[in-house]
């Protein structure tokens, strides 16, 4: 795959409240370029909100976000969201457009790429995820796993510096999870900078370079997978792991 050289992402002391609900309570997160960070923690701990704040779908109340050491808070948020690709649990594909059109749409509309060029690039990325032969199908005729791979191709076609995955395999039938995780692992190995919210502890442990455990809007522990999974330092992480493993 492509060579990646940028994409170091740093969130510093991020706070966010929804009304009186203080959801992010001073989050620090540092993801070195070319590495994969996984984000684990119980439901409601603020993981999805953190991703949305980091790409400024939601503005933090306070704190800073930097890419390659430069604050992005003054940057146009639309431009920032082209630098950070996002893949959701629900694939969010347009059902009435073909697979290729789903992938090429943003290239054409946002990147102003001529249509034939955008299609060529879409086909190239569909090929990368093993779905070039589905280019002219509608998303509804693909399996959930294939649809998620299309969503990943769509994000990659924008050539982001960082990729976010928010429970990308949680909506899939069990037999389809493996293919998507394998694609994510390939991407991680290729040197993409990734932040992955996941319940897949196998992925977190075997693929990611660092693991961050969140609970109640704070980072409770962060460290290399070996440490997090075999030598948790806090009762909260020990409790979380014994509940899910
Ligand atoms: P996680 O992804 O770890 O399950 P979330 O980031 O989705 O957690 O949610 C963290 C907390 O913020 C939860 O209490 C949730 O109900 C609340 N929350 C999330 N989004 C909103 C919103 N748009 N408005 C109000 N509360 C929200
Ligand atoms: Mg979530």
Can you summarize this structure?
This protein has nine helices and ten strands. The chain is α/β, with parallel strands linked by helices and 245 residues long. The model has no long low-confidence stretch (mean pLDDT 95).
Word description of this protein:
Helix 3 crosses helix 4. The protein has helices at residues 47-54, 77-83, 99-109, 115-128, 144-157, 174-189, 201-206, 225-230, 235-244, and strands at residues 9-18, 21-31, 36-40, 62-67, 70-71, 84-87, 162-166, 193-197, 210-215, 218-223. The strands form two sheets. Strands 6-7-8-3-9-10 form a six-stranded mixed beta sheet, sandwiched between helices. It has a four-stranded antiparallel beta sheet with strand order 2-1-4-5, covered by helices on one side. The chain is built from nine helices and ten strands. 38% of the residues lie in helices and 24% in strands. The chain has a single domain (9-243), classed as Rossmann fold, CATH 3.40.50.300. The protein is globular. The protein is α/β, with parallel strands linked by helices. Bound molecules: adenosine-5'-diphosphate and magnesium ion.
Strand order of the largest sheet: 6-7-8-3-9-10
CATH class: Alpha Beta
Q: What is the gyration radius calculated from CA atoms?
A: 18 Å
Mean pLDDT: 95
Helix content: 25-40%
SSE string, helix = H, strand = E?
EEEHEEHEHHHEHEHEEHH
How much strand content do the residues show? 15-25%
How many strand segments? 10
Characteristics:
globular; Rossmann fold; alpha/beta; about 240 residues; four-stranded antiparallel beta sheet; about 25% strand
